[in-house]
């Protein structure tokens, strides 16, 4: 910065870029796939890092079975018997509002290892990029939280309000960690999620509902296939109906979502059918994801898909007698929204503009996140973090290290602005 009218210079200069890169590397090296022991290991690693700063750290074992039985549980797509919650607190004087900085440490599977140039969990730095599963989504963002806290400590600034740091798991498949944190009574006046936004501001996102379809056929020997009904072939009119449904659901979208070619995608992710190559398959099971529009309830979205398939069954003689079965399972992400004019969005944008030298764009994202749980609990929340979301879940996932350092600088400075400082 050329000048420092807001007094951010010390915290900006206090962000240790080299140390931050090392922290991202250490996190990426933990293969914290959902439902594995390493998911807990990653949480413990963050807790250890925060404790090393001298922060007051609280860790607790999450009663997964008990929470999963709750009627408003947000869903889970992996077998998980253990999980850990971790928070830390930078105490203020008690005279200002509380800011929550929340990151998740779980990652999705790496997919085809052959699509990676090296081990997905052996982080590799190439120029300004760090490559590895979870680098973008969202271990760089989580590490940025740590180094924002380090910078605040190093500056000696005295905050009026508290800064709460939180690390959660289970985000990728529903939101177990944040759900558990909120059930612990942890709250704040605003929250920043450093999910990958390329340092833009994302105050809202669509939801995502996981579904399973069962399409029935009639088995027979493949040499007499015309006497059977292939469940694979009956999947074709189902796919066509789903594409028509997707088009209808995207005819009119919220202005915040208009940057996306398809704001509310409907996709099939897995298909399984048949048990013998020379048998006409009598069952196909397909699993997919239905996007939930801003302002739409999950119940309304479910009814839309179920209604479309019911109409197809009315029109098709086979389906009339053997209807497509729909099951809703796994992650059930509602949409969520913070008003783009809310002070947390505007204030963070102003700080980012001051530090980055350009104003972040403001838009909504087409994916689900923990934002909707936080907003539902009355905590205004915005995404702001390093990385391009298209790199998330992809082979050779990467994050821009310059953005990662800048994110930590902005988070530290924004904590000063939001919580206030005391002389």
Describe the structure.
With 423 residues, this protein is an alpha/beta fold. It folds into two domains: 9-205 and 336-419, Zn peptidases (Aminopeptidase), CATH 3.40.630.10; 207-333, Alpha-Beta Plaits (2-Layer Sandwich), CATH 3.30.70.360. Helix content is 35%, strand content 21%. The chain is built from twelve helices and 16 strands. It has helices spanning 9-13, 17-28, 37-52, 64-68, 135-155, 176-183, 231-249, 298-315, 317-321, 343-356, 371-376, 401-419, and strands at 56-61, 84-90, 99-104, 124-126, 129-131, 163-168, 190-193, 201-205, 207-216, 266-273, 283-292, 325-333, 336-337, 362-365, 381-383, 398-400. The strands form four sheets. A six-stranded mixed beta sheet has the order 1-2-6-3-7-15, sandwiched between helices. Strand 4 and strand 5 (129-131) form a beta hairpin. The longest helix has 21 residues, at 135-155. It is elongated, with a radius of gyration of 23 Å. The relative contact order is 0.20.
């Amino acid at each position: 910065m050329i000048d420092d009218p807001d007094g951010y210079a010390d915290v900006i200069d206090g962000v240790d870029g080299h140390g931050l890169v090392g922290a991202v590397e250490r996190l990426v090296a933990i293969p914290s796939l959902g439902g594995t022991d390493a998911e807990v290991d990653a949480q413990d690693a963050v807790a250890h890092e925060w404790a090393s700063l001298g922060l007051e750290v609280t860790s607790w074992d999450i009663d997964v079975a008990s929470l999963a039985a709750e009627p408003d549980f947000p869903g889970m797509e992996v077998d998980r018997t253990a999980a850990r919650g971790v928070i830390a607190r930078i105490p203020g004087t008690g005279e200002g509002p509380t800011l929550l900085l929340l990151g998740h440490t779980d990652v999705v599977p790496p997919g085809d290892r052959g699509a990676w140039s090296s081990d997905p969990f052996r982080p590799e730095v190439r120029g300004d990029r760090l490559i590895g599963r979870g680098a973008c989504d969202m271990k760089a963002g989580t590490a940025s939280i740590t180094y924002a806290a380090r910078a605040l400590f190093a500056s000696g600034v005295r905050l009026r309000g508290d800064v709460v740091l939180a690390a959660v798991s289970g985000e990728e498949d529903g939101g177990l960690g944040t759900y558990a944190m909120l059930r612990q009574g942890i709250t704040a006046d605003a929250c920043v999620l450093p999910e990958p936004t390329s340092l833009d501001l994302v105050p809202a996102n669509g939801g995502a509902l996981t579904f399973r379809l069962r399409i029935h056929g009639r088995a027979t020997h493949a040499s007499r296939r015309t006497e059977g009904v292939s469940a694979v072939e009956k999947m074709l009119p189902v796919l066509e109906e789903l594409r028509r449904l997707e088009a209808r659901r995207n005819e009119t979208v919220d202005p915040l979502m208009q940057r996306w070619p398809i704001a509310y995608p409907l996709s099939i992710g897995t298909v399984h059918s048949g048990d013998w190559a020379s048998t006409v398959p009598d069952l196909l099971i397909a699993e997919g994801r239905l996007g939930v529009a801003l302002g739409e309830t999950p119940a309304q979205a479910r009814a839309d898909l179920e209604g479309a398939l019911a109409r197809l069954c009315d029109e098709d003689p086979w389906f009339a007698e053997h209807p497509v079965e729909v099951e809703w399972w796994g992650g059930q992400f509602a949409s969520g929204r913070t008003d783009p004019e809310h002070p947390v969005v505007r204030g963070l944008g102003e700080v980012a503009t001051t530090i980055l030298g350009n104003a972040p764009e403001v838009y909504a994202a087409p994916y689900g996140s923990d934002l909707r749980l936080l907003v539902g609990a009355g905590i205004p929340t915005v995404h702001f973090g390093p990385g391009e979301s298209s790199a998330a879940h992809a082979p050779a996932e990467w994050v821009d290290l310059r953005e990662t350092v800048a994110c930590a600088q902005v988070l530290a400075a924004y904590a000063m602005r939001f919580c206030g400082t005391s002389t």
